[in-house]
Design goal:
The structure is a homodimer of 214-residue chains.
Chain A: H1 2-35, H2 39-70, H3 74-107, H4 118-140, H5 146-168, H6 177-213
Helix pairs in contact in A: 1-2, 1-3, 1-4, 2-3, 3-6, 4-5, 4-6, 5-6
């Protein structure tokens, strides 16, 4: 019974990790679509979000099967509930990647990002995607300390976000208001994506610590 | 055992309903803080969000206790998992209300909303809060059809959101870029709040229908 539980839990972890990998891929593609004003790629990212939603539903089904058949308690139960929460948050990361792609789609044929901000937006995307890459690993092989690490990296995301917002709302802004509002939303989507990654890492740490303390 | 399960489930529903009522109250206060540039009220809403986070943690604990002690299966299990998802989404509604209040806080002493848009923003807040009021009832006494109803009202929210975004990004906009970006974020927070309410109603409907079909 315990072996079967742990092998099913392992499978749930793999599902979550694969789902997170889909969300990172969506984020990277969305970033390219935004920076290169690639309408077709943007549409593909928006359409592919459905896959991530379905992956979340499958995680839910696995978790429910586990609960129904194994009736876990204590730290094992907490792990399953953690997985349910994490699946929700990763699905939300997928949504945010799709929102980023949508920004490119709506602005087409214009490019959302003026040339002078390409560097900062690229960096924002790179740091956020790197956080989610780390999460893919943490989901596969949980270890404590992931939260502290992602939380620290999130400060870089917040700093780039703040810098970009300062540029966008500066009186010298020369690209008009529709561009300013699209960009403000775009950088917020990145910031929220990173926040969700931190939030998943926090849940994982808690589940991990719980196990170790048990 | 079954009676005890249903009485605990009842208590979980009450907790969720009360938590949703806190989120609506936060939304209404945040709206007032934004429209009246009330810095003190905005700070209270931001601070009170912690209460909603704690309410979510308590819902989680109740759900885990239910799962551990009662080991529900089939539709009963689905109801508990539904509650876990709903608690997450309602907590997010609280976050969004706090983000709205934060918009007022950051703009202070200026008012985020120009006088000519007061009517539309007030309406946006009223409709979104009304949706969450309905959710408070649905959480207490689930019945099918709530999703269709909230989904329809959400179209009003989307229409006001679109109208406001058109005004904000119109060439005649006379209030500068920081105001435009703050407002674009503000109306998006309302729109997201309403989306979360729809999403909770959808989960409730599914759980309801599942029970009726079982």
């Amino acid at each position: 019974m315990r072996d079967s539980f742990h092998s099913e839990l392992e499978s749930l972890r793999e599902q979550l990790s694969a789902m997170c990998a889909q969300a990172v891929e969506a984020l990277r593609s969305a970033g390219r679509a935004v920076l290169e004003a690639d309408h077709e790629l943007a549409e593909r990212v928006v359409a592919a979000d459905r896959e991530i939603d379905l992956a979340r539903d499958r995680c839910d089904e696995t978790a429910q099967r586990l609960l129904a058949l194994q009736a876990p308690v204590a730290s094992d139960l907490r792990l399953v509930i953690t997985a349910v929460h994490c699946a929700d948050k990763i699905e939300r990361m997928g949504d945010l990647a799709a929102h980023i792609a949508d920004t490119a789609r709506l602005a087409h044929p214009a490019c959302v990002v003026p040339a002078e901000l390409t560097g900062a937006v690229t960096e924002l995307g790179t740091v956020a995607a790197g956080m989610a890459d780390r999460l893919v690993e943490l989901l596969r092989e949980p270890r404590s300390g992931g939260y502290a690490q992602l939380n620290e990296t999130d400060q870089t995301v917040d700093a780039i976000h703040a810098e970009l917002m300062n540029r966008i709302t500066d009186t010298s802004w020369a690209y008009g208001i529709p561009s300013a509002t699209s960009l403000a939303l775009l950088v917020r989507f990145y910031e929220r994506f990173a926040d969700q990654a931190v939030s998943v890492a926090k849940r994982l740490d808690f589940a991990c610590t719980g196990i170790m303390a048990a």
